[in-house]
Amino acid sequence: MHHPTSLPKIAGFASIFFGVVTAAFAFISKSPEPAVYMGAAGVILCLVSSVIARKNIDELQMAIAGLFLSIVATGIGVWQMYNL
């Protein structure tokens, strides 16, 4: 039986995936500018996906988790910019 995937579910998965990739890049990378730019793009993507997924709590939780990881990645990039 075919189970269609909804747009909020895809947005939630994309949000958490991009948040994890961005946070991993910020930890691994030694250059702060790309980490800040990717983190800011991740924050914008996660905010858009949280607006899309606001009616379903499961997808909203994934979007918020991705938002948290993107904010952490942005913070790491800003910290690297001023302390390294």
Automatic annotation (TrEMBL):
Organism domain of life: Bacteria
Keyword Transmembrane helix assigned: yes
Keywords associated with the record: Membrane, Transmembrane, Transmembrane helix
TM segment ranges: 12-29, 35-53, 60-82
Protein name as annotated: Uncharacterized protein
Native source organism of the sequence: Chitinophaga pollutisoli
Lineage, uppermost ranks: Bacteria, Pseudomonadati, Bacteroidota, Chitinophagia, Chitinophagales
